[in-house]
Amino acid sequence: MEVFWYLPTQGDERYLGTTIGRRPATYPYMQQIAQAVDKLGYGGMLIGTGQKQDTWIVATSLISVTERLRFLVAFRPAIMSPSLAVRMAATFDQISNGRIILNVVTGGDTKELAKDGIFLDHDQRYELTDEFLTIWRSLMQGEEVTYSGRHLKVKGAKLQFPPVQKPYPTLYFGGSSDAALQVAAKHIDVYLTWGEPPDQVAQKIAKVRRLAAEQGRTVRFGIRMHVIVRETTQKAWDAANELIQYVDDETIAAAHRRFAQSESEGQRRMAQLHKGERQNLEISPNLWAGVGLVRGGAGTALVGDAETVAARMLEYADLGIDTFVFSGYPHLEEAYRVAELLFPRLPLQTPAIALSQQVASTFSEFVTKTDLFRPQPV
What we know:
- The chain has one domain: TIM Barrel (Alpha-Beta Barrel), CATH 3.20.20.
- Helix content is 43%, strand content 17%.
- The chain has helices at residues 27-40, 55-63, 82-95, 110-115, 122-140, 178-187, 198-214, 233-243, 249-260, 265-274, 306-319, 331-342, 357-369, and strands at residues 2-7, 44-47, 71-75, 100-104, 145-148, 153-157, 171-173, 190-194, 220-230, 282-284, 287-288, 301-305, 321-327.
- Helix 3 links the parallel strand 3 and strand 4 (100-104).
- The model is unreliable at 352-362 and 369-378 (pLDDT under 50).
- This is Alkanesulfonate monooxygenase.
- Its EC number is 1.14.14.5.
- InterPro entries: Alkanesulphonate_mOase_FMN-dep, Luciferase-like_dom, Luciferase-like_sf, SsuD_RutA_monooxygenase.
């Protein structure tokens, strides 16, 4: 099992639906998170993409201030040429000595995509992604590529220097539509689902496995979700409720209307879990849909004491999940809390480096001495 953390390049929050306690995505703050994640023994860190700070520039800036942390960096087939993407990934792989992994993001929000000049419909975007990855994978393996597809063409393309990782850095990908699953089965190393209840995740895993087998391939699986873990179950649920204490009905309704306009099948499935309602947000034992009331993308969290959350993670692991990509608000403090409470209870592939009393004391001292992260009066 591996546990990844998330770097909030859009800025961080203490409460959803309000500016109280909000933190801008300054470089010093992102560096703090990255260095904490590096030392605490996380397997990697997902860097956000979209209309935020540029993923590649942020990731590159963090290579020299970390030692072993792997960066899960997004690339966007619709706005990058495969030849350029190959050079970028191979360069990063060399500079970081093999610390890049890649998150293929096709995109599901038409309005957001239009801002980057993308006007393809849903299935066309996945057709382009298929062509992109066909070219990209061949180039990464040292082949000279001439390719003419519906969306992409290259002639005599070739990567002039090899990546460190062979045959290329691991490819992650998420998408719940039939078109997305076909791409995953054909090209992807790790299929990343959002945090749906275990029975729904099991169905998705079974389908991807079947489609991959038809391609003569096997695929690993990961899950993207939030986590709220505390010393007791009551404290964890109290923290979950505090996170959305400023979320009002108008904000929820506006978010739900926005989600309804998305072409993303994954977003539709997330919104269906809570239906825009505050009631019954525990949609499966210890799986809470409260984040998704107002946030797009992964909208569920595992909530509970450490033993319970670890047990729920192992239930997902029994289905085939081996990588957990977590978030927690705020991301700096929660990175420490998750490592200290959860890591000793998990069969981690990457041994925790700094889960000592000294780290716990350092974090407690940090929180005690600073007022930077405390909520401000309304």
